Amino acid sequence: MNIKFRPEIKDLVPYKPGKPIEDVKREYGLTEVTKLASNENPLGYSPKAKEAIERCLEELHLYPDGNITDLKDAIAKRFGVKASQVLPSSGSDEMVDIISKTFINPGDEVILADVTFPRYIQTCTMMGGTPVVVPLKDFAHDLDGMKAKISEKTKLIWLCNPNNPTGTMFSEDALNSFLDSVPSHVVVIYDEAYREYVTRDDYPKDSTYLLDKYSNVIIMRTFSKAYGLAALRVGYTMASDEIINNLNKVRGPFNVNTIAQSAAIAALADDEFIKESYRVNAEGKEYLYKSFEEMGLWYAPSETNHIFFDAKKDCQELFTELQKRGMIIRPMYGTYSRVSIGTMEQNELFIKLLKEVLQ
Q1: Is residue 232 scored above 70 in pLDDT?
Q2: Same-domain pairing of 30 and 57
Q3: CB within 8 Å of 13: residues ≥ 6 apart
Q4: What pLDDT, in 10s, does the model give residues 240-283?
Q5: Predicted TM-score of the model (pTM)
Q6: CA distances for 231 relative to 36, 90, 120, 305, angstroms
Q7: Which residues are CB-contacts of 22 (< 8 A; sequence separation ≥ 6)?
């Protein structure tokens, strides 16, 4: 073959999403399968969002608002920022790509944790950047270790707080101390996809003040987790006007569809749904903690809607055996796996099947 591909993508591996329910049903001849693999909201999504979606169905022949005006305005009003500081995207995945395309030149260094959202390192490599990987410390971000790696070549630093897949977090004081030490020309992306699930008081519940304090900070959020709009692919980024203007140059036209825009606006206004999602998640988390402790299994204390745990069994073997029984979780590496927190019925079923496999 004479076709030449960019050398930067030679060793990249396509992102592997959680296994779909229908695939497992076909593979094992099952009629009922529970998926606790992709950190989806087990309650679904807001009824207000459903009403908004239904109102959009007569407009599918029209292009969406390419400026995403109403959603920008809703986010800005809700969180006390300017609309010019907001840029929605087709999920956080797209924004990770946009940020990397906007900032990274070949040879630029990008600092990130060794166990975190995989798209950070993939998009860095794709753009010819050099990943500078800092191991987690006690399964949480080692901010001091990251600080020590900052060099003249550093362009970006990725912080996922709480972290995916470990569920761990660092405090507001630790975050501010870290940002104080980062040179102003180094861009720090603060990804808080799971912020709505955090229970600890020392977490920065409202991080928007960072935009006034640090001109080099980008805040990323999503509607895929607590808001339950994962299928619609909609997230948003907040940053300085200058950063947003440059990200907007890279953003594709009509990247957030009409249904996603309308559903996100409605979901943003439904505080009761978010409160109930938080309650169900907190209750489920405590149940799983107790179950793991009774089984003698280690887990990382989580501030998300998933738990990173050690089943003392090869994660791929565990993954396969649970699938045979109609349960999908996420294998990580070694004996570590990640399970999403579901409804209490789903959580109890997971523990029942986990005990079967491990016995």
Answers
A1: yes
A2: no
A3: none
A4: 999 999 999 999 999 999 999 999 999 999 999 999 999 999 99
A5: 0.95
A6: 16, 10, 21, 17
A7: none
Strand partners, 298: 310
Which CATH number goes with the domain that contains 297?
A: 3.90.1150.10
Q: Which residues of 47-57 are buried (b: 16+ CB within 10 A; e: fewer)?
A: ebbeebbeebe
In sequence order, the β-bridge partners of residue 86 are 238
Assess contact for 302 and 168: CB atoms under 8 A: yes
Distance CA 175, CA 82 (A): 23
Written as one letter, the residue type at 138 is: D
Separation of alpha carbons 253 and 248, rounded Å = 9
What is the domain range of residue 29? 8-37+272-358
Q: Beta 306-310 vs 336-340: how paired, if at all?
A: antiparallel
Q: Are 132 and 299 in contact (CB under 8 A)?
A: no
3-state secondary structure of 257: coil
